[in-house]
Amino acid sequence: MAPVYKLTYFPLRGLAEPIRFLLHYGNIEFEDFRIETENWPEIKPHMPFGKIPSIAITRYLAKKVKLVGANDLEDLEIDAIVDTINDLRGNIARYHYETNEAVKESSKKPLFEETIPYYLERMEAIVKKNNGHLAVGKLTWADFFFVGIVDTLNFMIKKNLIADCPNLQGLQKNVLNLPAIKEWVAKRPVSDL
Amino acid sequence: MAPVYKLTYFPLRGLAEPIRFLLHYGNIEFEDFRIETENWPEIKPHMPFGKIPSIAITRYLAKKVKLVGANDLEDLEIDAIVDTINDLRGNIARYHYETNEAVKESSKKPLFEETIPYYLERMEAIVKKNNGHLAVGKLTWADFFFVGIVDTLNFMIKKNLIADCPNLQGLQKNVLNLPAIKEWVAKRPVSDL
Fold first, then answer.
1. Which intervals hold domain GST N-terminal (chains A, B) (predicted)?
2. Going by DSSP bridges, is the β-strand pair B5-9/A30-34 parallel, antiparallel, or unpaired?
3. Nearest Cβ partner of B72 from A48, A60, A119?
4. Among residues A134, B50, B67, B131, which is most buried (max CB within 10 A)?
């Protein structure tokens, strides 16, 4: 019997959703193990650094399902945009999870008026000139990474991040219309994040 | 004539230093182009996202000089620890660059008493049981990444991050004793960061 992957994550899309997209896309059997938040303190010590190394896992699975570049230089382009999207995600997540209301309030304007438009304008321009994709002119795991996390980012900022980005909307539509992704998204558990 | 790499960065070690380590280690010719801080506003718009995609470049060069894993699973292990080290770096850099003194002061205790010990204890344990290395039991670009940035992190926190970590000190010594690295470190420009 072949080993079956077990994906351990919170009952959320979060950073696990690009991983789930890749597994469904590649028709790879896996156990979608969702830990209850109250059980996390018990599990956390067993994670090497108290976190799931989600981007490293996403890159690994992208190789398995052949959503990587054709050579090292293409992989550099993919890795660079994934890190960029993850920088944007980090900015949004720090805002969302900030518990000091004064700090949160003071970070709101720079986030919404500077950081988000800065990233989105550039990502939109890349997709426009890049055959509808975030890297190397074809479908790669960078597209899955972005589309997999954008709903969660939207929830965190209480607006649609790509409302003014027709090319990113087109990319999102194309990924969500892939048969395996469409089937997964239709049946996945509902969550805010 | 073969193309020659041009590395564009501030006159700092920073996140470029692991890249410089790899280029020297691989005996790859490159122009170590250091922009003056006052010229950055002119150059920044030409960077796709106003930043240098340093980790993606580091991974790319690691492939060229064969400091990667023997297979995809080993690369996953390397990528995971690099992202972990980069998380720690991000925590330290945000503290260092925080301009609001009240925010900086309130973040000091959690950083020094929780975050840093948490990461360092676990990294030290990994190196101890892992043949003196951060991943896959042999020299990889994860080791270069850590040793390449640790002096800069030390400057940011005004102490030696690995003062209580004999195994990480051993790793640092081994990397700094590689002939190409030793030669580079002896002649590199001096900077705080």
1. 3-69
2. unpaired
3. A60
4. A134
